[in-house]
Design a protein that fits this description.
By secondary structure, this protein is α/β, with parallel strands linked by helices. Helices cover about 40% and strands about 15% of the residues. Helix 6 packs across helix 14 (about 410-420). The longest helix is centred in the middle third of the chain and has 24 residues, at about 300-320.
Length: about 675
């Protein structure tokens, strides 16, 4: 295990160049590009630049990972971002790393002889929990996968003082300290969150003092404007983190020499405070320090400043010449372009319930892929509150199957960082509604491939038991809610109705390259409707391929999850409806039932083909009525198969009320077989 090294000086010439480059870019954007309307989001780093440039000198391990925020451009410049790329990104040109897809200051950077800058988020505080995943991943690569090149690598999370009030900061702090992960919290305290002073972010306006008694956390509290003091403390904090003894936090006090963004005039600051902040500018202090220590002469400093200004002006001109993005590519990179190789071979195994099928598939894939990790609340020793991970920790160890703190934001954010580091995380969220605190991380994860033009992606499989249970419901554990996730761009969604489909879809997701929600319906986990024969250790099912549960000619029912069982029960009553609906008919009605199996993508072509054959459609969903996924399918049928319809497209769903706890009330709101049969009769009689 690498030991903490003594304090060493950074390459001050690199620091100077980075700071001067950042200042020159800020000046050009503030005085030229913003007034001309060429930059629409500008966040000055003046005042933050020196400490970030110093930090960047120490983040040089090939497997270091940094999560950053909107004021982190000096750090990213130090990691290798060019001035031309920076300004092209700010102007939304194709020459920026985003290609015009994201705000110019929402940075990311693949390694350029230094570390990896993980994709930033536009959300305050969202950078912390992915850093946890990276920190845990580097230790996993070294300790479990035995890759010595990862020894001593760390994660660093840069954030302003305002971000210490965010959920993500506390989720990461809790995970890092309880698991002693190599993560450095790099807190840049300029005293303000836009106009809100620091005492509203944390009591006493100093997070370092507040955390002084926090267990397993090494803390530095430093002036961030004194070059020598800042460099000493930053180097010590990085060295300690590299020792892998646990996480560290360094709190650096600096001035914010410009408003929060270019539209912020700082009118809430007094003239006296503005003057004091200007006098505390770290750049003149850096110049004085470097000249006094004979690293530069005054002439050499002035020459460097002139050289940098010339270089940045030339970079500006090249950025201005960078073309606008090609609009024909705007749909690219939402999902991986690499097709999944589907193995449909099957070996008939024993009959099992859906829960056991999930556990068996996880066990097989854990043995097959050493980079696959399963974690969440209670998934370790307990084996999951639903039993889907029983004995997996015993078989594969605590490094691969482990428990986490009760923080869904932290679970998903950690998964994102792990995925960036090349692992395949399989987090479990105990119930669908419990995923709500992770919405920010879910959104960022889904869009990162598109935002980075596939330079980054975070494939994972998030397992979520969802829906009502056979013996109980309630507003908290019985939510289906798949439509909310269907609206999250970049996520695939599987919702199997039986054990065989669960095996095939889960294995496909685990071998894929996109983030995926895998719904395990609570009413099917250990009940007869979900049981099937185990189809073998290689069996896979492609996403977007519906299953024809039964064929028919008179009406199409499209559904998924536990509603498949209810659709079959209702359809069995259809022959008895013949005399009531059409006494002159000489044959029984036949109902075609499609089990979508996956929501994103869903098999639109199968739905349309069936409706064109039957000329009638009923879409059945457990999710509540307004804006559920059934409405999306109804709209598609109406738009693309209207001329084939002999009756209006109908849908059934739970009304817009929470799922009740009382079983009688629960069954009163869920679409039941009788209600479905009545809807069938209505459509056939039209």
């Amino acid at each position: 295990m690498p030991k903490a090294t003594s304090s060493v000086h950074p390459d001050w010439k690199n620091v100077a160049r980075t700071v001067l480059t950042s200042r020159a870019i800020d000046k050009i954007e503030e005085t030229e590009l913003v007034p001309k309307g060429l930059v629409t989001y500008q966040f000055s780093a003046r005042g933050h630049d020196m400490i970030q440039a110093i930090l960047s000198e120490y983040i040089s391990h090939q497997h270091d990972g940094a999560t950053v925020y909107y004021r982190s451009r000096p750090f990213v410049l130090g990691q290798g971002l060019t001035a031309e790329e920076s300004m092209a990104a700010s102007m939304a040109r194709s020459g920026g790393v985003h290609g015009g897809r994201d705000i110019g200051v929402v940075h990311f950077l693949r390694p350029r002889s230094r570390g990896t800058v993980l994709p930033a988020s536009g959300d305050v505080g969202a950078q912390y929990s992915p850093a946890i995943g990276w920190a845990q991943a580097v230790q996993y690569h070294a300790n479990v996968l035995k890759d010595d090149s990862y020894k001593g690598a760390i994660a660093v999370a840069l954030g302003g003082d305002g971000s210490v009030a965010a959920n993500g900061f506390w989720a990461a702090l809790n995970a890092a300290t309880t698991q002693k992960l190599p993560l450095l919290f790099f807190i840049e305290d300029n005293g303000y969150g836009i106009s809100v002073t620091g005492d509203f972010q944390t009591p006493g306006a100093n997070i370092a003092k507040n955390l002084a008694s926090f267990g397993n956390l090494k803390i530095w509290d430093s002036d961030g404007t004194d070059p020598e003091v800042a460099a000493k403390n930053i180097s010590e904090a990085v060295a300690y983190t590299r020792s892998w003894q646990g996480p560290a936090l360094i709190h650096l006090t600096i001035p914010r020499l410009e408003g929060h963004s270019f539209v912020d005039t700082q009118s809430y600051k007094s003239p006296e405070l503005l003057k004091k902040e200007k006098e505390n500018d770290p750049l003149p202090k850096l110049e004085k320090y470097l000249i006094a220590n004979k690293i530069f002469s005054k002439k050499e400093w002035d020459a460097l400043a002139t050289e940098v200004e010339s270089d940045v002006n030339a970079a500006r001109d090249r950025a201005l010449d960078s073309p606008q993005p090609d609009i024909s590519t705007v749909h690219d990179h939402v999902f991986s372009a690499k097709p999944i190789e589907i193995n449909s071979s099957r070996n008939e195994g024993v009959r099992m319930n859906l829960q056991d099928a999930v556990r068996k598939t996880l066990e097989v894939e854990l043995a097959r892929n050493p980079k696959l990790l399963i974690f969440g609340e209670d998934v370790g020793a307990k084996g999951g509150v639903h039993g889907a991970t029983v004995d997996l920790q015993v078989k594969f160890g605590k490094d691969r199957v482990f428990d986490t703190s009760l923080s869904e934001e932290g679970i998903i954010g950690r998964s994102v960082g792990m995925a960036f580091a090349g692992l395949m995380p399989v987090p479990e969220i105990q119930f669908r509604k419990y995923a709500d605190p992770a919405t920010e991380q879910i959104n960022d994860c889904g869009t990162v491939r598109w935002r980075s033009k596939s330079q980054f992606a975070a494939p994972m499989v998030v397992r979520i038991p969802a829906g009502y249970a056979k013996k109980t419901g309630d507003p908290w554990h019985s939510v289906s809610g798949e439509a909310v996730f269907a609206h999250q761009i970049g996520w695939r969604i599987a919702f199997p109705s039986n054990a065989e489909d669960a095996v095939g879809l889960l294995r496909t997701a685990l071998r894929g390259e996109d983030p995926t929600f895998f719904f395990e319906h609570r009413a099917l986990l250990d009940t007869p409707p979900g049981r099937r024969n185990y189809p073998g250790d290689e069996f896979m099912i492609p996403f977007g391929k519906a299953r024809v549960v039964q064929e028919g000619n008179d009406l199409t029912i499209v559904t998924w999850g536990a509603m498949v069982e209810r659709a079959v029960a209702a359809a069995s009553e259809v022959p008895s409806l013949k005399s009531e609906v059409n006494s002159s008919s000489t044959s029984d009605f036949s109902i075609e039932i499609l089990d979508l199996r996956t929501i994103v993508p869903y098999d639109k072509e199968a739905v349309l083909a069936s409706v064109r054959k039957t000329s009638r459609a009923l879409i059945l969903a457990e999710d509540n009525w307004t804006c559920n996924f059934a409405a999306e399918i109804c709209a598609t049928i109406t738009q693309e198969a209207f001329e084939y319809l002999d009756a209006p497209v109908e849908r059934l769903a739970t009304p817009d009320v929470p799922i009740p706890y009382n079983v009688g009330l629960m069954n009163a709101v869920l679409p039941g077989a009788e209600e479905i049969a009545a809807a069938i009769e209505k459509i056939l009689a039209f």
